[in-house]
Amino acid sequence: MPGRTLPTLTQAEVESHNSQKSCYVTIGTNVYDVTDFVESHPGGPDLILEYAGKDITAILKDEISHKHSDSAYEILEEYQTAFLVTDKLAPNGDVQKKIADPQTNDKLSPSVHPRTGMSCEEDLSKDTDYTTDYKEHKFLDLSKPLLMQVWFGGFSKRFYLDQVHRPRHYKGGASAPLFGNFLEPLSLTPWWLVPMIWLPAVSYGVYLASQGYDSNLGLATSFAGGVLLWTLIEYVLHRCLFHLDYYLPDNRVGITLHFLLHGVHHYLPMDKYRLVMPPTLFVVLATPFWKLAHSIFFWDWHLATAVFCGGIFGYVCYDLTHYFLHHQNLPLWYKDLKKYHLAHHFLDYELGFGVTSRFWDRVFGTELVTVVKTA
To answer: Residue range 258-271: average pLDDT?
Structure first.
């Protein structure tokens, strides 16, 4: 790299950095300190830690795992910390770095999507330069509380929608400040909180509902019906509420509510503490569905409760799936769904509303058909 002198490390020194606290990887003679990137990796931290202290050239080209684009190498470029001492590298480290050459990644040269400013899913984890981004777009400063910036920003709806759907990434995998005060913890929800709170509630609800059933088969059928119903509710909520978008009133009240409900997720899609719904917000959204279920099945309280519990269980599956699609390496049969959802973020936010399944997208004609499926 011209104008920059990097130290040199031996293979043994690189291999010693093999933990989450200090994680180095190599590509040829280039050494990268990816410690800050581990938690933000779209495939999940475990996949990086598996190769901590090792060369990752082969896995980056692996068609079965996921062949990485040039953008992934551009992200790595920011993390180069040293050169590896080999027979072909002089001790002074006077070597020209070469990142995405045809030998390594077939020179894909991806195009940038004008709607999002990104070219592939790896871009979702590329750190945003706060100062440069704010100067260029005049939207939000990631170093300051976001909600009040939206409220006082005076943005037009058109400008807001364009900017909020151009994803940014907060450095180091942390969460950008939303409120900047005592309310901040209410906006941060770790994924494990969802099953911890709602699965016991679902179990108790199923127990109460079972008192009105003569057979477990009838109870299971009602519960399964609730799960199926949830998949439709998931699609409708995502498309008609979370992506109300162009039906928003062009004022700061509508824009701020949109940002708080779902806009912040599209603005910072890899924020791992804003990927599942805070329990307080879910209670607000779930209450009308409780009343709806008991209005529809008014003649049988136990049937209504079983269907409702099935729906809540479907929601738990949805929230966990959403988190893992963003932050974990998934089994091969799940990789298509991961690509499908991340394309909703970096390619076209007006299509691909299904998270746990693309079934309803196919039914209602909103499927993202341009996604390349995993080999």
So the answer is: 92
